[in-house]
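Put briefly, the fold is written as integer tokens. The lines below illustrate.
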Amino acid sequence: MTGMLTHSAFKSDIKPVWCPGCGDFGVVNALTKACAKMELRPEDVAVVSGIGCSSRIPAYTSCYGFHGVHGRALAAGTGLKVARPDLTVIVTGGDGDGYSIGGNHFLHACRRNVDMTYIVMDNRVYGMTKGQPSPTTEPDWDSKLSPEGTGLHEFRPMVVALSSGANFIARAFTGDPNGLADLIVQAVRHPGFSFIEVLSPCVTFRPEQRDWKKIVRHDALKPTSDLPRAVRRMLRDTGFDLGVLYAGERKPYQPRGRREARDVSALEARFAL
């Protein structure tokens, strides 16, 4: 293929099966627009995911895709980027996949600082499995599966990312796909591990989230490389402040040079008794 591609070139022929009105539609549109803006080629991009509604995204793009197991998307994405540093690796998932069973991988992906981008669609509920509370669900959210709420303090992804060493941290809203596309471009181009928390309403199990469009504060967060300043901003964060919280200066992880292949007999000789 030659010449610049439009965002449609990054979409597959598979139609999304999400509920009408799902916020995740906006993420697919933003992701494909971002790839076009960066003048990438589908064969130069790999989209990796785990399990959940949002983790269907690799099938909806024309890029290389890997649909992994629950919570292990970052592990797969990290291995791919280290083995193929020439690829643009983008990992996608949801709050259940990323912060519950995948929480440990999230911590260490931030710490390792491999040059890839992690986009998490947060709707504060397990949508695919019919509405259980997720790690980011408010403690007083009352539902049939959690009468009177869980009473548990919600997980704060941006705080964890900041304290664990992520090099780029931002928050976006699916109701503004153009703004999200711009953030994805910034995240991909920023060296190291980039994390974008995307507020993505679940209109089926949490219809009240339709009101998020009235609550979000566009450009409330301004990028800084000063860690203490970013921490202070998090102390005042409403959970609906959009923009770039932190753009750090850590050098990305670089794997050591590959060793030359050795003859098997030479390796066996080292362990001979």
Notes: The first strand starts at residue 45 and ends at 49. The domain at 23-258 is CATH 3.40.50.970 (Rossmann fold).
